Amino acid sequence: MKPLYVSGELVSRAAETSALVRLPSLAPLPDFVWDGAAILRADRQVIVKLIDSYNHANGVNFLALLVAISALREGLPMPVGTERVAPKATGHGAEADALPALPRLSELSPTVLALARRLDEFGRLGPSDAIASLYRHLAHWPAFLSIAYVALEPLHRSGELARAQESVIAFGRRQSVELANLVDCDLPAITPESRSAVLSALDEFTRLMIGRMIVTGKAMRSLIPPDGEAQYERH
Questions:
Q1: Local confidence band at 14 (pLDDT 50, 70, 90 cut-offs)
Q2: Confidence (pTM)
Q3: CA 177, CA 66: separation in Å to the nearest integer?
């Protein structure tokens, strides 16, 4: 999958996938809501960087892994007359060093752990023992998780999050077909048992985890207004 990452194509394709997610019932919350919950501007700036980092990584990894699934299932011969795209830099800098450490589940209080587990159920298309790391990372700000729960719970209950995820997965699968010309087709041989195990893991990750987090990640990001815009209402 390396040619997909170095080509820069995944970044633009991931932006198309993100643009597909439209949740009109969500809107940025005013500053006084965040300040009242003790999520101050400095906190919000870190939260935005954190969510944006996850959203970027989830978008590109989602598409790359869908292509990997296709390659493992049926192989990806080069389309006739197609030239490989020359690698180019993606321009996405590493911001992980400026972010807080990812806590382990054992480090979360019972209340915050229950909140993260419940948020992780939102929009699920099937059962999985895994818990998305974004919720664990956001556990540094329990009040943010609480606000996100209140905002997203109606969308989960109505099925809007699940429907948005299904659209993202279907769109990503169509995109993965077009990305086939960037894949290294000289694949190493693996045993049928290994192929089956890897396919099972990739299918669960893309269908039940990363596609869902593309939707909920964008939903949570939409709750925080752009930095510098006054959100107070004055009367």
A1: confident
A2: 0.84
A3: 9
